[in-house]
Design goal:
This protein is mostly helical. Helices cover about 75% and strands about 5% of the residues. Helix 14 runs antiparallel to helix 15 and helix 15 packs across helix 21.
């Protein structure tokens, strides 16, 4: 694998952070503030895309900033896995920024400058985690992401938001400091390095029991992945504005959690060691339990965003399960689900927010006939739901297809049943919403239909874009498949 020394990974990380002083100084001029946000998003995405041709040729971009410990620098390395995640996150930041304009102004939210500033910082942390060359760099940006998203979770500054913010920090910081940090120190003590490598760096460094404990510390320590029982912060965080729920809690925050676990499995332990110690089976079993329980709890939620939150908890573990299968097709399916789920789930959150802006409704039981008044929004919701369920012609079908093939490669019928059962439960808790919206009559008020509802254009355009993206990923998944092969399978 040829390494190219380049400043581009660092620039991709810093762009959104460097725009924050400009956002703050233009706080009294919202149009200028939002223009800078969109410009920063475009520059960040362009830098990420510029590295794509080289990575597809088997090259990697690297940059080292400074040494922290002997053999452990703060450094970035852009491979296929990191670039896949960065492409998704940077593109959806631009779309979410457009959506945020309609949502935040439509509801006349307070402290919008603070919101856009911390949003930008969170995206810098996300790209930093995506491009981390070692476990220390990943941990650093993981923590920056935790701290930068707290003000977004607690944005409304009422008692419920503050309580949810405290719970968010308790879970996310508590697990990373209490579990990941000591595990990382032990890894360095054992191996003398924290550098991600194809074979991992822990093989032969300790006995099976010690390695199992390290694996569990790292698996549960990256609690942004919302693996049960360390999941309840995610539904609580739904008090945040919908754009926060959409990008940070359907794409950036939670995906950094599962991305970190994938890095641990593939770059710290390595596939051979996972297979030798049956750690893949252990991780897969934990993920399978989360998949099923998350799906069952989602069915009972009447608040739309909470149903989406428990769906996210379930769907994140598909990624862990796919890698835990330790088969080529399973790993392709699991890692591709980072992108496929991101587009489908952000569409669903966008739709929930558009309904909130237009009608003030957030409970599913109040959404009879909503599709007649908001056909574009609920149509996009249907597409997003199909992708999460895993139905063609949406991208979620591709990742779940590979996951199913991966279980067959591994000859693991239990995990196959888990994936198929969960997909059925996905349909059970999503499709009735679409039926209710399109085929039940709207409530009557005084013998007349409810007041006229207008779909907010600044919210509708982004959700149409992400819905189209979900369909496009079904027909053109080759880019992501190739990136996964370059990163994990080294084909």
């Amino acid at each position: 694998m040829e390494a190219i020394e380049s400043i581009r990974p660092l620039l991709a990380v810093l762009v959104s952070a460097l725009v924050i002083p400009v956002l703050i100084s233009s706080g009294g001029r919202p149009n200028i503030r939002e223009a800078w946000t969109l410009l920063a998003g475009l520059i960040k995405f362009s830098i990420v895309v510029s590295m794509l041709p080289a990575v597809l040729k088997g090259q990697e971009f690297t940059v080292t900033l400074f040494q922290v410990l002997p053999g452990v620098p703060i450094a970035f390395r852009v491979d296929g896995l990191g670039l896949l995640f960065a492409l998704v996150a940077s593109f959806l930041w631009m779309v979410t920024s457009i959506y945020s304009i309609g949502y935040m102004r439509g509801l006349e939210e307070h402290s919008q400058t603070r919101y856009f500033s911390f949003f930008a910082l969170a995206l810098s942390a996300t790209i930093g985690a995506a491009f981390a060359a070692n476990l220390l760099t990943l941990y650093l940006f993981y923590e920056i992401l935790s701290l930068s998203t707290y003000p977004l979770v607690a944005h409304h500054q009422d008692e419920k938001s503050r309580a949810s913010g405290r719970k968010y920090l308790a879970y996310i910081l508590g697990t990373s400091i209490g579990l990941v940090l000591p595990a990382m120190l032990i890894c360095y003590h054992l191996a003398g390095t924290l550098e991600f490598s194809q074979q991992g760096f822990l093989a032969g460094q300790a006995g099976p029991t010690a390695l199992l404990m390290l694996f569990l510390l790292l698996l549960f320590g990256f609690a942004k992945a919302a693996i049960m029982p360390l999941h309840s912060w995610l539904p609580a965080a739904m008090v945040a504005p919908t754009p926060v729920s959409a990008l940070l809690h359907a794409v950036a925050v939670v995906k950094v959690g599962v991305f970190s676990i994938v890095r641990v499995m593939t770059g710290v332990f390595g596939i051979d060691l996972l297979a030798e110690l049956s750690l893949g089976t252990a991780a897969g079993t934990i993920a399978a339990v989360t998949i099923l329980i998350g799906s069952l709890i989602a069915m009972s939620q009447d608040e739309l965003k909470r149903r989406l939150a428990f769906s996210t908890i379930s769907q994140l573990s598909y990624i862990v399960l796919g890698v835990a299968l330790l088969t080529p097709k399973g790993m392709i399916g699991g890692i591709m689900h980072i992108a496929m789920h991101a587009f489908g789930k952000i569409t669903l959150f966008f739709c929930a927010g558009a309904i909130m802006v237009a009608t003030g409704k957030k409970y599913i039981s109040d959404m009879d006939g909503i599709g007649r008044a908001m056909p574009i929004t609920l149509g996009a919701f249907f597409i997003g739901a199909m992708s999460v369920i895993g139905l063609p012609p949406c991208g979620g079908f591709i990742s779940k297809w590979y996951l199913v093939l991966g279980t067959l490669q591994a000859e693991n019928l239990v995990f196959l049943v888990v994936i198929l059962t969960s997909s059925f439960l996905n349909a059970v808790y999503f499709l009735p919403i679409v039926y209710r919206g399109f085929f039940r009559p709207p409530p009557q008020q005084g013998g007349a239909a409810s007041v006229q509802i207008t779909e907010p254009i600044w919210c509708v355009v982004p959700l149409v874009v992400t819905a189209i993206g979900s369909i496009a990923l079904f027909f053109y998944p080759e880019l992501f498949i190739e990136l996964v092969r370059r990163a994990v399978l080294r084909e």
